[in-house]
Write a structure and sequence with these properties.
With about 280 residues, the chain is an alpha+beta fold. The protein has helices at about 5-10, 15-30, 35-40, 45-55, 60-70, 80-85, 110-120, 165-170, 175-180, 250-260, 270-275, and strands at about 130-135, 145-155, 155-160, 180-190, 190-200, 205-210, 220-225, 240-245, 260-265. About 20% of the residues are buried. InterPro entries: Cro/C1-type_HTH (IPR001387), Lambda_DNA-bd_dom_sf (IPR010982). GO terms for molecular function: DNA binding.
Length: about 280
């Protein structure tokens, strides 16, 4: 390394140095089974580790030693690109990974989205299966019910479900599993839970908000869903929605799945119908 280059590093801003370390860390963690497993093995708080990845913070010397020892590198990862100082530690590029990683933890967004993404506790929104009901978006006379699955992976909370077959057939789309599938990211809000839900390739999206109902069983969440579409006099863009936690009760899950799809008002579960107030306007 030249004297000029060494001097440039010594005078680099703390933000620039954190950025170098964060980018190095993103490359190194690709070799780990998961970020959550890595944090557990290193004994590092997941939220703090996300700050390292986002270039928001430096680790303490003892934490840096753990990271370097685990990946077989040295403290130069604070200053220099890891592919230059330890190319063997960097996993080979995967041609399929053509979508930018860490979008929601990007330094420009990290302080705004990061805590919400990592803070969904089991107590506030448990994993398992849920039955949901809402007014249909594409049919003003009917309602939709179905089952979604909520789970935790790598410290985040996700959901997965399938669109009703009839919904795709109405739009001339073949109702294959791949076409019907939607996935979502669950985020903690001050007074509830929010979802950002997409179909494959982000063809459509919806925003959902739920707040736990103060019932004895505490198994119901009430809120609304909003879809990203142009205004139309014959279709809804927003509707009240209710979620009922079924847990892992096979009998309840199968019964709810069999009833999934479009319903007339009189066929909606009475408790769901009562709280969705279909005869009242939504604002």
């Amino acid at each position: 390394m030249t004297r000029h280059a060494r001097q440039s590093e010594l005078t680099a801003s703390p933000a620039a140095l954190r950025s170098v370390f964060g980018e190095n860390l993103k490359l190194l963690v690709k070799k780990a089974p998961s970020v959550s497993a890595l944090c557990r093995e290193l004994g590092i708080n997941r939220t703090q580790f996300n700050r390292y990845l986002a270039g928001e913070s430096f680790p303490r010397p003892d934490v840096l030693h753990k990271i370097c020892d685990f990946f077989g590198v040295d403290a130069r990862i604070l200053l220099e690109p890891v592919e230059q100082i330890a190319p063997e530690a960097v996993p080979e590029a995967n041609p399929a990974d053509d979508v930018p990683n860490g979008l929601l933890s990007h330094p420009w967004l990290g302080s705004f989205t990061g805590p919400a993404l990592c803070g969904v506790e089991e107590a506030s929104f448990p994993s398992g299966f849920y039955r949901f009901t809402r007014a249909a978006f594409s049919d003003s006379e009917r309602f939709v019910t179905g089952v979604i699955y909520v789970f935790r992976k790598d410290g985040f909370c996700f959901l997965r479900g399938l669109e009703p077959k009839a919904a795709l057939e109405m739009n001339g789309v073949t109702p294959t599993i791949q076409n019907r599938e939607f996935r979502g990211l669950v985020m903690q809000q001050a007074e509830g839970i929010a979802f950002l839900v997409n179909r494959r390739d982000a063809l459509t999206a919806s925003f959902n908000y739920l707040s736990r109902m103060p019932s004895i069983a505490r198994t119901f969440w009430l809120g609304y869903a909003v879809r990203t579409t142009q205004e139309s006099p014959s279709a809804r863009r927003a509707a009240r929605m209710i979620y009922e936690h079924l847990g892992y009760d096979t009998g309840k899950i199968l019964a709810a799945a069999r009833r999934g799809g479009y319903l007339q008002l009189e066929d909606v579960t009475p408790f769901h119908r009562q709280h969705l107030r279909f005869d009242e306007g939504f604002a």
